[in-house]
C-alpha cells in the first residue's frame, strides 16, 4: 500500500512540475509572439541601458526611469529588451536591459497607436499567467492602453 501511495504521489508531483513547465513555455511563447509583432513600433533612439541588480523588479526600474506614477510602463522596457528576457517576472541580476525614451514612445502620433495596441496585447498575455498579481497587472496594462 505504501508503494502505491508513493507511486501516486510521485506521478502527481511529476504531472504538476510538467504542467508548470509547459504553462511557463506557453506564456513565454505568447510574450515572444507579441514582442515580435511590435518590435518595429518602438523608438530606441537615445535609449539608456540598465544592468539588473539583486532585488530589482521591472516595475521598480520603470518607476526609476519614467516616474513614480509609471511602474506599469515596464512593457516598454521588455519590448526593447526582448532579446535578453521574455517574461517580465523572470529578470535576474546581471541582465542588461534597454530603457527606451518614455515620451518618444507614448506621445508621438507616429508611435502612440501601436504602443496602445502593444499594451493591450501584453495585458492579454498576463491573462494566461492566471495569478492574482497577473490579474492586477493586466488591469493596469489595460488602463494604460485605454489612456494612450
Explain what you see:
The chain is mainly α and 148 residues long. It has six helices and two strands. It has a two-stranded antiparallel ribbon. α1 (2-38) runs antiparallel to α5 (112-129) and α5 packs antiparallel against α6 (132-147). The longest helix is centred in the N-terminal third of the chain and has 37 residues, at 2-38. The N and C termini lie far apart (62 Å). Residues 5-20 have low confidence and may be disordered.
Q: Profile the largest sheet.
A: 2 strands, antiparallel
User: In what range is the share of β-strand residues?
Assistant: 5-15%
Radius of gyration: 18 Å
How many strands in all? 2
Distance between the termini: 62 Å
Helical residues, percent: 55-70%
Q: Give the mean pLDDT.
A: 88
- Stretches where pLDDT falls below 50 for ≥5 residues? 5-20
Derived structural class: mainly alpha
- The number of helices is 6
- Widest sheet, order of strands: 1-2
Amino acid at each position: 500500500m505504501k508503494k502505491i501511495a508513493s507511486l501516486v504521489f510521485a506521478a502527481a508531483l511529476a504531472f504538476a512540475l510538467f504542467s508548470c513547465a509547459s504553462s511557463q513555455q506557453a506564456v513565454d511563447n505568447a510574450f515572444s509572439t507579441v514582442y515580435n509583432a511590435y518590435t518595429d513600433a518602438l523608438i530606441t533612439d537615445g535609449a539608456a541601458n540598465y544592468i539588473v541588480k539583486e532585488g530589482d523588479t521591472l516595475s521598480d526600474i520603470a518607476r526609476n526611469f519614467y516616474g513614480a506614477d509609471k511602474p506599469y510602463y515596464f512593457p516598454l522596457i521588455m519590448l526593447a529588451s526582448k532579446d535578453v528576457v521574455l517574461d517580465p517576472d523572470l529578470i535576474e541580476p546581471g541582465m542588461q536591459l534597454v530603457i527606451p525614451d518614455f515620451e518618444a514612445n507614448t506621445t508621438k502620433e507616429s508611435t502612440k497607436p501601436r504602443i496602445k495596441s502593444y499594451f493591450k496585447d501584453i495585458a492579454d498575455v498576463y491573462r494566461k499567467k492566471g495569478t492574482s498579481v497577473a490579474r492586477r497587472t493586466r488591469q493596469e496594462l489595460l488602463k494604460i492602453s485605454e489612456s494612450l
